[in-house]
Amino acid sequence: MFKLNLKIALRNLWKHKSYTFINVAGLTIGMASCILIFIFIRYHLSFDEQFANKDRIFRMVTYWKYTEGEEFQRGTPRPLPAAVRNDFSEVEQAGAIQGSGGILKIRDESGKEKIKTAEDVYYVEPQFFKIFDYKWLQGDPQQALSNPNTVALSEKMATRFFGDWRKAVGQTINFQNKTDLKVTGVFENVPENSSIPLKVVISYAGYTNPNLRKWGSVSSSSQCYVLLKAGTELVQMQAQLRAFAKKYNSDKEVGERKYFLQPLREIHHDERYGSGRGTMPMKQIWGLGIIGLFLLITACINFINLATAQAIGRSKEVGVRKVMGSLRSQLMVQFLTETLTITVFAVLLACAVTELALPGMASLFRGNVTFSLFAHPVIFVFLFGLVLLVSFLAGFYPALVISGFNPALAIKNKISSASSGGVGLRKALVIVQFSITVILIIATLVVLKQMNYMREKSLGFNPSAVALVDVPSDSLSLERYAGLKERVLKLPGVLHASFCSASPSSDSNNMDNFSFETSKERDFQVNTKQADEDYFKTFGLKIIAGKPLSKSDTLKEYVINETMLRKLNIPDPQQAIGKYLNISGDQKAQVVGVVKDFNNLNLREAISPIALSSSKIRSTTLAVKLQSGALMSTMPAIEKTWNDVFPEHVYGAVFMEDEIGRYYEGEQVMGTLFKVFAGTIIFISFIGLFGLISFIAAQRTREVAIRKVLGASNLELVHMLNGSFLAMVFVANLVACPLAYIFASKWLSGYTYRIELSIWPFLIAMLVSVVITLITVSVRSYQTALKNPVDALKYE
């Protein structure tokens, strides 16, 4: 029976080629978009899912509550892991991990240096590998890192360093030009969908830091992971953490500090505890899912509209089959088989389109997304479910309507548009389709306008043509700082240069407690940055009171920003000059200047109170201001000079504008997606509308001919056919605009600095939808109006 139904379906589809093409094209594009979106969502939802105890693994994070605001920090004080192991019986394991970086050198058997590279490294406690079940190829994870000056490598890194990972254990790696580390273990490569990209792991026993025992110092690079015992209630644990925080936090600390347990599966999706780079917030995943659903709905609406519009042409077929004894259920199966055939063919084409589009998508998302049914069987399950869902959504109603025709009326050709699927339903579906289109057009315009605003908004400094060059901060290198700066300043194309801990807008933001001479009470912390006397010229910062920092290698004076003055309730910047500022209780100096506010974070967040001071030992960056036309010629000269001064280190540099651009990778991706998918939905709507007006025009051929014989002009006939469609588009705009306004307002509320939502995106969306409708419908209507009425009436 199925074979017969399939044969009849193929004959009908071949007979109505334009109908088949329009449906296949719409479904192919819609489903290809859905597949791409699903692959991307699957990749990001798979983060950190590879661990056996993933449901019991948590990262401890720090939270401050102030009178005016709050602060989230993914790091914890360095003494915290040991205290957690001691104070909580509910914790099965707690392990510290300290992010760092440095120079790794590998020598050959003769002692000659063969590899020198700058890599991210992590100091890790042995307990860490009881929490995370990484597979070790060599070495015991509990013993390998128990002693100082030992290191474990990933399989890829061990192969890179020693040719064969099997030969790595027992070898020596020089770290930071001063410490020899013995390789004691090799573990499997950590997959890309992991929040902790371990490659080089050093024993925590060898980690040194002046803040190792200080609870008041919190760094984002110092983190703690815990494994709770089975059956532990998270709510009860959080209650105990409040008492834990009070026990170890100082009474003198500003604000209220708390610790929370962040589930492992939420780390990749939580923007609050990081810079936002590499994370994929759940709101964006939901947004992509909704876009995919919109695309699917739009494609299915095309199918339903065309199928019900075509129903009149198949009424005699239905009547004859019913007279011959066919049951309604058999007819429904027949028409659903046709839908299934179209859907299967469309999904095969969609898979081909997906393969073609995947490289561009992987480049856009900067992720290793693959379309492999064998590596990820869930994709096959999704495709199977997609075929069934689309076949049912698109085919059930038309099959129900067509199979329900009265055979007597059908054979007499007395089936009307109203009885062939409901004119009202088709109008409602067109309204829904264009509502989706209008919403996406408005959303795209708002996203692009906000992105353009962020690119053009003044940050309070000039990031253009500024190169950020890494410099080593060890004591031996400090003596060569002055020589490097002098040589770089002499290079052609270099305007200014400055040693600093970070650029004005940076991920490196240290928050500290402080006291100020005229302030009795304060309920905030200060963001500290180290800079030299040329920092303000290099970045174009404006001093509004006092003077910039003087030349000094150590702490001598401070320059603060306007936000700090406002929080200290100092109305006149001159009143702060000469007052003493004490940071962390041991960094006291006079305020010599006030700098105009600049954005030290991204534009989602407000400007922090900032204090700049000089400290060469904390300077890890040389910022170089270049002539805009000399970038390509000057950067190689800077690299050569740097290598001459620091031959034992590894050169690294980025441009400030590129760094700022990375803050908004998520917005750039969403902007691109909205443009692509808005265009896709417009195209699907276009071909669907063209198909629908074609069938309607064919049904009204005799009416058009009679009107023309009675004297109607071509323009009047086009207006007659266009009128109902323009009315539907107008209603669609009335439905879509309020929904789009709610979406846009909610999305923009996530930015401290944002555009004002104006009427223009809504007017442009309305204009685009009307123009698309006019062009699509008018072209087909005009073709119908041009036909000779004799051809339509000669058989009457």
UniProtKB/TrEMBL annotation:
Record's bilayer topology term: Multi-pass membrane protein
Major subcellular location class: membrane
Top-level division of the source organism's lineage: Bacteria
Every MacB-like periplasmic core domain range: 20-243, 436-633
Keywords for the protein's UniProt record, in alphabetical order: Cell membrane, Membrane, Transmembrane, Transmembrane helix
Cross-referenced InterPro entries: ABC3_permease_C, MacB_PCD, Macrolide_Exporter_MacB
Keyword Cell inner membrane attached: no
Subcellular location: Cell membrane
Coiled coil stretches, renumbered: none
GO cellular component: plasma membrane
Gene Ontology molecular functions: transmembrane transporter activity
Bilayer-spanning residue ranges: 20-41, 285-312, 332-358, 370-397, 428-448, 672-697, 717-743, 755-779
Sequence ranges assigned to domain ABC3 transporter permease C-terminal in this UniProt record: 290-407, 676-783
Protein name: Putative permease
Species, as recorded: Pedobacter nutrimenti
